[in-house]
């Protein structure tokens, strides 16, 4: 037992003496593991910091609603630099005085960004043409940047067309113009180009097309429209610019109608002219029978009732979208027609701009038509063959000696559109409005009849007499037809005679899709219908 204890004590002592060495190894291993762990944690944290730092500009750009700036090509741009920064800065001395930025730029307030260009800038750039002469400030952009390389290339241009060919776009023109990098020598257009009114598109240049999209902003500003409204296609087949003009025509027609109602006055010919000038006409290639010369289309719109090529009978889209325009033109006739034609009925209007219709016949009209012309023009009389009974197979067989010429600028004519008629050549700005009844009127849905009545049209009855106001044509053969009618073959009323007409009540058209209920609007419509 004593030996065992001695041996145990010796072993314990021996073990005690060895413990520091073993603990040291364990401590070193633990410390190394801890160091590795810390290093890994530090590396991970550094990686996170670096990643966060790299992501910060993107996050800020995203928060600001901006697209992160691309660094692609930056290295190549720096390598392609042909001068040092110091050399470039030396070249900039005195250049700000020689190439000052427009004064309005310094006065601008609350700009959202440097690419939110000012109205004055759009107003200038949209008046450029391919031939507009321009000059660029030399070396305006710092070396080592991609914009420096692009600028040095397109700044060699001396016209807008050359600048476009060398890689500059309207966005560049706006940017450079606001910083005084461009001097414009002209020529400039008096007004921005309206592509929707260009007769021959082959005359448009690449500069015209490039600038066109910028015109929308200028247009919205000038016409007092919300640019978002121009993005919505409600009229069918409308360009942005066409829609803008029609929205203005609608807005102003509504004001004129309200003023007439409030003041108890008639709609005047001047107000009709203003409305027609505000309206944007469609290029109509469907009216082959009226196309003059070698023209492939004319400025012409039909509003009101129409039967399309598939046989469907409906209101044209423009009728439903711009009802006050239709109503104003109807109201003029209601307010001004003499008592002897007060029972004239119509379902549709044909609106024409600046063309002289060749000799033709309207094939599907019911009863007489009324026609007037407005504008600053000379000539443009209506030639009418009142006895044309369509027995002559060729229109060319109608003789000039048999025609009657009517001055539409100074009066209103009632004629039979199914007889031969044409328009004399004219000089100036001429608009015409034809009031007529579509041959399919009695087959139209009741909703169409109701809407047209609300817009002021005197819709014909199912048993309407087509010859109640004008007698039938008698023909030009030796054995002319005879009839007992006391009505004339044509009626012409001068503006002075029209002024004697009584003021009619102003109806209020319901909007497309608006629910109709019995009320003041319907009551007014019924009064108009029975007037």
What is the 3D shape? elongated
Arithmetic mean pLDDT:
82
Number of helices: 17
Fraction in helix: 25-40%
Q: Could you tell me how far the N terminus lies from the C terminus, measured between alpha carbons in angstroms? A: 141 Å
Secondary structure tally: strands: 15
Strand content: 5-15%
- Sheet with the most strands, sense and barrel status: 8 strands, antiparallel
Helix-strand makeup class: alpha+beta
Q: Work out the radius of gyration.
A: 39 Å
Features:
alpha+beta, eight-stranded antiparallel β-sheet, elongated, disordered N terminus, 531 residues
Short description:
With about 525 residues, the protein is an alpha+beta fold. It has 17 helices and 15 strands. The chain has helices at about 1-65, 75-80, 85-90, 95-100, 105, 120-125, 145-155, 160-165, 170-180, 205-225, 240-265, 270-280, 315-320, 325-335, 445-455, 495-500, 520-530; strands at about 135, 180-185, 285, 300-305, 315, 350-355, 370-375, 375-380, 380-385, 405, 410-415, 420-425, 425-430, 430-435, 490-495.
Characterise the protein shown here.
The structure is a single chain. Strand 4 and strand 5 (313-315) form a beta hairpin. It is elongated, with a radius of gyration of 39 Å. It has 531 residues and is α+β, with helices and mostly antiparallel strands. The strands form 4 sheets. Strands 3, 4, 5, 6, 7, 11, 14 and 15 form an 8-stranded antiparallel sheet that branches. A 3-stranded antiparallel sheet has the order 10-9-12, with no helix packed on it. A two-stranded antiparallel sheet has the order 1-2. It is built from 17 helices and 15 strands. Helix 6 packs across helix 10 (206-223), helix 10 (206-223) runs parallel beside helix 11 and helix 11 packs antiparallel against helix 12 (269-278). The model is unreliable at 1-22, 46-51 and 510-531 (pLDDT under 50). The longest helix has 62 residues, at 2-63.
């Amino acid at each position: 037992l004593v030996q065992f204890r001695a041996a145990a004590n010796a072993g314990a002592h021996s073990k005690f003496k060895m413990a520091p060495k073993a603990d040291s190894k364990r401590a070193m291993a633990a410390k190394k593991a801890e160091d590795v762990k810390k290093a890994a944690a530090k590396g991970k944290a550094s990686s996170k910091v670096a990643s966060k730092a790299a992501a910060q500009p993107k996050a800020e750009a995203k928060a600001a609603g901006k697209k992160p700036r691309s660094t692609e090509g930056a290295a190549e741009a720096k390598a392609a630099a042909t001068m040092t920064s110091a050399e470039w800065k030396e070249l900039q001395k005195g250049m700000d005085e020689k190439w000052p930025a427009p004064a309005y730029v310094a006065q601008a307030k609350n700009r959202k960004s440097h690419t939110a260009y000012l109205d004055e800038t759009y107003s200038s750039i949209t008046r450029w043409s391919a031939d507009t002469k321009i000059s660029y400030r030399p070396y305006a952009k710092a070396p080592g940047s991609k914009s420096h390389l692009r600028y040095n290339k397109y700044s060699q241009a001396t016209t807008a067309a050359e600048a476009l060919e060398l890689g500059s776009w309207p966005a560049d023109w706006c940017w450079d113009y606001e910083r005084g990098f461009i001097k414009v020598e002209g020529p400039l257009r008096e007004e921005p180009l309206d592509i929707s009114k260009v007769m021959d598109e082959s005359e448009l240049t690449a500069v015209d097309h490039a600038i066109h999209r910028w015109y929308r902003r200028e247009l919205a500003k000038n016409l007092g429209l919300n640019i978002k409204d121009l993005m919505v296609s409600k009229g069918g087949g409308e360009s942005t610019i066409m829609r803008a003009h029609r929205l203005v025509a609608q807005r102003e027609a509504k004001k004129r109608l309200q003023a007439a109602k409030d003041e108890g006055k008639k709609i005047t010919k001047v107000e009709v002219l203003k409305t027609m000038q505000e309206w944007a006409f469609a290029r109509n290639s469907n009216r082959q029978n009226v196309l003059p010369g070698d023209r492939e289309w004319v400025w012409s719109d039909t509003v009101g009732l129409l039967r399309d090529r598939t046989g469907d009978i409906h209101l044209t889209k423009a009728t439903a979208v711009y009802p006050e325009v239709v109503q104003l033109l109807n109201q003029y006739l209601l307010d001004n027609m003499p008592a002897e034609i007060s029972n004239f009925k119509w379902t549709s209007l044909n609106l024409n701009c600046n063309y002289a219709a060749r000799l033709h016949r309207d094939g599907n009209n019911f009863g007489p038509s009324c026609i007037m012309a407005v504008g600053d023009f000379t000539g443009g009389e209506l030639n009418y063959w009142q006895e044309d009974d369509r027995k002559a197979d060729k229109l060319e067989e109608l003789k000039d000696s048999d025609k009657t010429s009517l001055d539409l600028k100074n009066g209103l004519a009632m004629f039979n559109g199914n007889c031969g008629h044409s328009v004399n050549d004219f000089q100036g700005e001429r608009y015409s409005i034809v009031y007529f009844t579509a041959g399919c009127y009695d087959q139209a849905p009741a909703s169409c009849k109701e809407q047209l009545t609300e817009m002021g049209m005197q819709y014909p009855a199912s048993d309407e007499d087509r010859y109640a106001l004008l007698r039938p044509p008698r023909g030009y053969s030796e054995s002319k037809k005879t009839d007992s009618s006391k009505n004339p073959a044509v009626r012409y009323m001068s503006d002075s005679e029209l002024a004697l007409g009584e003021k009619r009540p102003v109806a209020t058209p319901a909007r497309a899709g608006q629910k109709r209920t019995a009320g003041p609007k319907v009551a007014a419509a019924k009064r108009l219908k029975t007037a």
